[in-house]
Amino acid sequence: MIPSATPARLGILAGALGLIAVPMVGQANALTSTLASGGAPTVTQDRLTPTTATAGAATSAALTLHAGSCFTAKTVGVGVRDAAGNNLDFPGNRANQRICPSGLSLTTGARTFASGTYSVFGFYQDQAGAWHNLPAQSLTVSANAGAGGGGSAGGSGSGTGTSPVTPPAAPSAPTGSPVPGKALTWSDEFNGPLDSTKWNDSTTTSYKYGSHNPDDNKLDWITPSDVAVANGTATFTAQPSSHTLENGKQAWTTGLLTTEGSQQGFKVKTGDYAEARVQLPSAPGAWPALWTWANGGSEIDSFEYHPDNPNLLELTNHVNSAQKYYTDANAVKPGQWVTIGTYYGATSVDYYVNGVKVFSDNTGVGANWSAYLILNLSISAGQYHPAPSGSAPISFAADYVRVYR
Fold first, then answer.
1. Which of 288, 110, 275 is nearest to 176 (CA)?
2. CATH number of the domain that residue 240 is part of
3. Which of 59, 168, 255, 338 is most buried as measured by Cβ atoms within 10 A of its Cβ?
4. d(CA 118, CA 80)
């Protein structure tokens, strides 16, 4: 991305947490895992909802669990398997979650199911990289309008029959394009391994040295293993590396996905609407973004985000200069899932948050504009926004990227 003269300038993002497919384990007792540190905390799934849902209705899961002693899980989420064993997990895994005897509650992103019976279970990944499934229970999805999604957790936990106290659910993702007359033309729902026909995860011409770009106040060193796709989510994780940048600073390995250099070589163009559903990071130094690049420019930043401005998104047109700092304390905050979209109009680029237009720049991209998509997690070097405050990994997640034309 092109540096801005304003201190709030955001940059590119991309890092990755190692996710893999989680095989289901259906034991009905609390799970004990041995972590890399040598400890063996017992992790207990206290409550898991829903146990019922309505076919076609957006449904989120709520998970409450606790550990016998405190440890940090690399990932926590809720898995789903259909009768054939297919992976239909809820989106929105949480990265770097502290699990203690006092408990942890989380609410996933929403998804829809066809009618039928499913197995659902909490899961987590320990710091050694091993995946652990918690006890499974049934989710019955009915075609009847009266089959609501609630109920107490089954299979394990307290069995009190009362609803768990959980954080507010992330807003359900809008369906379809908010721009009339558009049809889905390209997408990645991140439902399987990273699709190399759609993405290049190793280099970009937007970085001066291909894999890194210290001149843009970034500590990034693009590393393919730092983007992992599993359980319906692409997770980017950044961490300190042994690489030294040209300016003498220590680099952080991180992940970046771009359509440039992929087998498909897909480009967005004038008149397209693109959106991504992402979970905003909370760690100092995180700098995620969805943006475009081609031929040394053509940059439109659908969003950039820095946790030190926790309720602010930077929306920027670098083709025909225009920018807005959009603030929303409810929709934009660390840990929040939010849907961010951009209509690349010839005379106005329009920006959307959770399906609602929040800014029209009235400058546009012109009639013949086109560019590659980039989704990534950059790490700030500290010039405009704080650099990382320690060496702990920093993560960012995406549920999907979609383009309509």
1. 275
2. 2.60.120.200
3. 255
4. 7
